[in-house]
Amino acid sequence: MNINDLVRYWGRTRPEHPAIIFGEVTQTWGELDAVTDALARGLAGRGVGRGDRVGILMKNRLEVAWTMLATLKLGAISVPLNFRLLAGELLPMLTDCAPRVVVTEADLAGLLEPAHQVLGFDAFATDTSDLPAFRTLLAGHGPVPPGELPTRTPRSSVTPRAPPACPRARC
């Protein structure tokens, strides 16, 4: 079980109960499950799949949680990027992680330009900018048939493994 299994469970059993309270915004479990499903379909429509990396260059905002959860639903990897860094400092990080997509804010999008020219990833802004809008991802761009989103193996069918040996004596 992972966090998305919990979002799905609470989205189905208590859809009207609050899941996230962020400032003046309260989002229910049902809304959170629906918006992260839509975002996952949108990311999948842009070629994001299991093992791909999705960069997240945003300040603290609701869309960060959505993007992280949607990324997990696809079996992809969220790469949070520090919005306080300069473009030249982000370039080696983005080169190293090689994201398929980066989701950002319009006022931070300029920081991605040097890396975008070298790496050619897709970038989406959460608000108005020259980049494709985040709402195109939320619209679920690209066909993803129902059931295509990966699910986790139920815990009961997983063979337990012994914990790794601790390299230090006091673990």
Structural notes for this entry:
- Strand 1 (about 20) and strand 2 (about 25-30) form a beta hairpin.
- The strands form two sheets. Strands 4-3-5-6 form a four-stranded parallel sheet, covered by helices on one side.
- It is built from six helices and six strands.
- The protein has about 170 residues and is α/β, with parallel strands linked by helices.
- Helix content is about 35%, strand content about 15%.
- The chain has helices at about 5-15, 30-45, 60-75, 85-95, 115-120, 135-140, and strands at about 20, 25-30, 55, 75-80, 100-105, 120-125.
- Mean pLDDT is about 80; it is low at about 140-165 and about 165-170.
- Helix 1 (about 5-15) packs across helix 2 (about 30-45).
> Mind telling me the C-alpha Rg?
18 Å
Please summarize the sheet with the most strands: 4 strands, parallel
Continuous helix count: 6
How much helix, percentage-wise, in residues? 25-40%
Q: Report the mean per-residue pLDDT as an integer.
A: 79
List the keywords.
alpha/beta, 6 strands, 37% helix, 171 residues, disordered C terminus, two-stranded antiparallel ribbon, 4-stranded parallel sheet
Short description:
The protein is an alpha/beta fold and 171 residues long. It has helices at residues 3-13, 29-45, 62-73, 87-97, 113-119, 134-138; strands at residues 18-22, 25-28, 53-57, 77-80, 101-104, 122-125.
Indicate the topology.
Elements: H1 3-13, E1 18-22, E2 25-28, H2 29-45, E3 53-57, H3 62-73, E4 77-80, H4 87-97, E5 101-104, H5 113-119, E6 122-125, H6 134-138
Parallel strand pairs: 3-4, 3-5, 5-6
Antiparallel strand pairs: 1-2
Helix pairs in contact: 1-2, 2-3, 4-5
